[in-house]
Amino acid sequence: MSTVKLHTSPHLHQPLTVEVIMRHVVYALLPVCAWSVYQFGLSALALLAVCTVVCVGTEHLCCKWMGQASTVNDWSAVITGLLLALVLPPGFPLWMAVVAAVFGIAVGKMFFGGLGANVMNPALVGRAFAQAAFTLPMTTWVPSMAPGRFTTFIPSTLTPPFLVPRSISGWLETVAPDGFTGATPLALMKYEQVSTDPTALMFGTVSGSAGETAGLLILLCGIYLAVRKIMDWRIPIGVLGSAFVLSGIFYWLDAERYPSPWFTLFAGGLMLGAVFMATDMVGSPETKRGTWIYAILIGVLTVVIRLFGGLNEGVMYAILLGNAAAPLISRLTQPRVYGTVKSARKKKVTA
Fold first, then answer.
1. What pLDDT, on a 0 to 100 scale, did the predictor assign at position 2?
2. CB atoms within 10 A of CB 151
3. Sign (positive/negative) of CA torsion 169, 174, 178, 181?
4. CA angle 6-9-12, nearest 5°?
5. Which residues contact 230 (CB under 8 A, 6 or more apart)?
6. Is the pTM of this model over 0.85?
7. Among 127, 196, 224, 318, fewest CB within 10 Å belongs to which?
8. How many Cβ atoms from other residues are within 10 Å of residue 102's Cβ?
9. Any residues with CB less than 8 A from the CB of 265 and at least 6 apart, and which?
10. Where does the pLDDT of residue 199 fall: very low under 50, low under 70, confident under 90, or very high at 90 and above?
11. Phi, psi of 16 (to 5 degrees)
12. List of residues 6+ apart from 340 with CB closer than 8 A
């Protein structure tokens, strides 16, 4: 005698668990991390290791303190640690990175109940805290491909806790004898109207945060996630497309004042943010229409902050604002239930 089993939808299950999804995101981040280490050397490697270990350790301790099983096996804390390190300056003091990592996990994630309950991307929450608490180190940059980067640390990396970061002026004279302005391509464009070769931006041979410079590599890693259907391709397309169009309009109006749309795509952290941060499943809307609205909002805000704000970079704040708006966007874009009518039409029929 056969048994009939009745189940509610969904009836088809994809063999993807949280652990599998997060692990593939880590795989996609590894090439970006490897390029960061190749570009900035031991300091970048130490920054990646410290942020990752502290994020995992903080989540484990928070789970124990809340009396629940540890959730570090889902790999999400590893992703937060890697992303946090990649959006920090390569010479960022390690003790400050520890503080940012603890804040990002404890306040940005565990305070709300852990994975799935957090409102905003924890890595960006940690970076926003670092931006407010450690302003000078967050705006101190070093040259790319400096000689000796695999044998010595950037001096500011090993600054003791609660002390002023060590000066890197003497170190810069050694590694960059021809002079180094200490400005990123975005800063040069915003304050001096000096553009950077798009090829350098695509292949990551410029100064900037530890993992945001190699735009083409980040894009390829994003394609890997999209092909495996782990990332919603609409979000990076919407973010990058809206930023490209809006910046293209301003460039068409005044090419001497505003950067080209290609510069906008590959300069700063837009590519990294669009591929790995805006696509966070927890912080993005649930509906397809809402996803497009969310992505376009982030792209537009990024360009507006870059061109008209006091900061030369706006990706972090654009994504955090998009995360905050995501629940409302999801609510307003919910599809109509089959068989129902709009309230106004229903009242009219009843009358």
1. 62
2. 8
3. negative
4. 100
5. 16, 21, 24, 25
6. yes
7. 224
8. 18
9. 215, 240, 243, 244, 271
10. confident
11. -120, 120
12. none
Tokens 């507006």, residue?
A: 304
Given this model, what pLDDT does residue 349 score? Answer: 47
d(CA 288, CA 333): 8
The span from the CA of 159 to the CA of 169, in Å, is: 15
Q: Give the amino acid at 163.
A: L
Give the list of residues 6+ apart from residue 234 with CB closer than 8 angstroms, or none. Answer: 288, 291, 292, 295
DSSP string, 210-240: TTSS-HHHHHHHHHHHHHTT-S-THHHHHHH
Total residues found in the chain within this entry: 351
In sequence order, what DSSP letters do the residues of 16-37 get, joined into one string? Answer: --HHHHHHHHHHHHHHHHHHHH
Q: Minimal CA–CA distance to 86: which of 146, 22, 40?
A: 40
CB contact at 8 A, 273 and 316: yes
In angstroms, the CA 320 to CA 275 distance is 15
Q: At what angle do helices 42-65 and 76-86 cross, to 10 degrees?
A: 140
Q: Which two tokens stand for residue 258?
A: 């505003």
Q: Whole-angstrom Cα distance, residue 351 to residue 348?
A: 5
Q: What is the pLDDT of residues 205-263, one digit of tens each?
A: 788 888 888 889 999 999 999 999 889 999 999 999 999 999 999 999 998 888 999 99
Buried b (16+ CB within 10 A) or exposed e, 74-88: bbbbbbbbbbbbbbb
Contacts of 50 (CB under 8 A, 6+ apart): 85, 94, 97, 98, 101
